[in-house]
Design brief:
The longest helix is centred in the first third of the chain and has 18 residues. The protein is about 45% helix and about 20% strand. The chain is α/β, with parallel strands linked by helices and about 220 residues long. The protein starts with a strand and ends with a helix. The relative contact order is 0.22. The radius of gyration is 18 Å and the shape is globular. Strands 3-2-1-4-5 form a five-stranded mixed sheet. Strand 4, helix 6 and strand 5 form a beta-alpha-beta unit. The protein has a single domain, classed as 2-Layer Sandwich (Nucleotidyltransferase, domain 5), CATH 3.30.420. The protein has seven helices and five strands, in the order E-E-H-H-H-E-H-H-E-H-E-H.
Length: about 220
Amino acid sequence: MHLFYIDESGNTGSNLEAPDQPIHWLVALCVTPEALRDFEREMLALALRYFPDRAREPDFEFHGNHIYTRRGDCRGWPAERAVELYAELMAIVARQSCAVFITGIDKAALKRRAAASGYEAAHPYSLAFMYLLERIDEWLEHRSPDGDLGLLVADEQKEVDRHIVKKFASWRQTSTEYGLGRRSIRFLIDTVHYVPSQDSWLIQMADCLAYLYARYQ
């Protein structure tokens, strides 16, 4: 069994022409149940070291944007301390040798294609999610002779979460919808479990990965 923790960067909703965030990125961090325990232990230890007065409060979370821009709990930090924390977070991922899946949607190109075809543009998150699941499902299929199973846990996304849950059920029953890579989602089970990011260390790690990747690109 593999667990896939999903978060995003560059979500500007229905605004598909934001010049500072042209790509909607979606990142899935894949862990086994055994690795999950290691992640949680290491991230809690890191939180207690950097934020001893906040780490155990229910609304505390690692947030890539706040670390990078030194806002929120990182307000007033020198840049070197923020870089050090980010490096330590990424080192946890490296030690676990996790699979990471990344999909991006060019929002301006999406708007142009929709206008040319006379349709309203889909929400970039919905498209990115579908393409991401196609890649994950194919990866699971080739993990063993009978394929491995996976479960999806994603950051709360109130704009489209009910839409995605319904679409996911459809993709499992029939197939995904666009292009030559359409596939029936056979190895991802149950439903998409949307949770608030502060309730999951692994969602927070996916957020940090997504933000860092967006900045790198």
